[in-house]
Fold these 2 entries.
Entry 1:
Amino acid sequence: MSTAKKEYKRITTKTLVDMKNRGEKISMLTAYDFTMAQIVDGAGIDVILVGDSASNVMAGHETTLPITLDQMIYHAASVIRGVNRSLVVVDIPFGSYQSDPKEALRSAIRIMKESGGHAVKVEGGKEIKESVKRILNAGIPVMGHLGLTPQSIYKFGTYTVRAKEDEEAEALKQDALLLEKAGCFAIVLEKVPAKLAEEVAKSLTIPVIGIGAGNGVDGQVLVTHDMLGMTHEFNPRFLRRYLDMHDAMTNAFKNYSKDVKSGDFPNEEEQY
Ligand code: KIV
């Protein structure tokens, strides 16, 4: 019997650019823990995002703002232990990169060193340009995030579609070019009109990964718990549910409770 560990062809930032050039779409999903990361990676998803959506999904906060750098590092390190192939991108959380480029670099270095993540993601355009450059200069790959940027939710006031008006659309296009020029390897575009997203994707050489940004971009990302149907109350138009885990899990828990209470579980074969 061979004891050799199976070799995986790892996805790198270069793989993603090559995929864009070949016209091959990029798949990306979130994960925040070891078990989910193993399943997502094993299913062949190209990029795993340790999103600050962990603040909502894992911790039950209303926004992504409360999650800390230490908590993101904990989630990212758990994910990394479950991954053989996917590229793992880790969100730098709110308050850990906005005040100055040195702080941004320190946060990115902590993520890379303490979690083993492969790249970081930051929200924003020209206002964080110096921070992006500083992180990139240290050899850390950066993914940008434009459009609806949840860390700025109190500035926007709502989670509705961004950049519907010409002025905001123009600013978004400029920011996307700026992030590409600065050296970002990819950009997430969240909740913007499909036509604008396609235009941005066509104007850039780096991949644009959409969420609620239509089909004219280079890849798609969803929050795993949403696409599995675990979060019943979240129903944006862009979300396609591939399972109804909420109902499936509820039924399993009810059946377990019934079996425990009736004395059916454990039976003779389930004991020592
Ligand atoms: O935190 C997150 O899950 C994200 C995705 C929605 C892109 O940023």
Note: Residues 13-241 form a domain with the TIM Barrel fold (CATH 3.20.20.60).
Entry 2:
Amino acid sequence: MIKGFIFDLDGVITDTAELHYEAWKKLSDEMGWHFDRELNEQLRGISRMDSIKVIMDYNKVTLTDDAVVSLATKKNDIYVASLDTMTPDDYLPGARELLTHLRTEGFSVALGSASKNAIKVLEQLNATHYFDVIGDGNSVTQSKPAPDIFLFAAERMKLPANNCIVFEDAEKGIDAAKAGGFYSVGIGPEERVGHADLRFDTMKQATLFEIKSFFGDLF
Ligand code: BG6
Ligand code: MG
């Protein structure tokens, strides 16, 4: 039976995937590194330090550990500054409606994000009250595609994995959900999240009615 929902944040609840892209692009331009949307796709769902390693590997750059940390911090400063203008108008269409519906129907709801800025993003959106449990980049050490963040969220909700549906926009996020034994809903194109149990192009289509219709007897 489905009793809980676990949501990724960036690219599911709000369009911060775009702000992460812009911050990495700015850093890369300053460093003279190549960075484009195709490379950015590989960063969806993975941690900040894993992300900078992907960009540096692509550009065949090696730096001292301290230099890497300081550049990742610089990217984060750019990203965090861009969050200041975020408001409760910045949910992805359909996200707030689904969260509200889950609350009124009494489901347990958790956040399962790789971001260390998740609490700030939830505060900017005024979304904190939708979540019983917040799992973020500080909750576990192994990032997606490892299932740890979702297992953390399920454990805190006191639910087994097969009682939960994970919402994800990242290929590695769906991989993580499957590795943990969760049901999954992918948000985005087939080539990215087509391996989810159920997929929608956008959150707007992801209504509780559609989800219940698909998962049927599990509700
Ligand atoms: C994920 C994003 O949610 O969080 C990644 O999809 C990002 O792009 C990761 O790198 C870590 O975020 P932060 O805010 O801790 O740098
Ligand atoms: Mg995401």
Note: The mean pLDDT is 97.
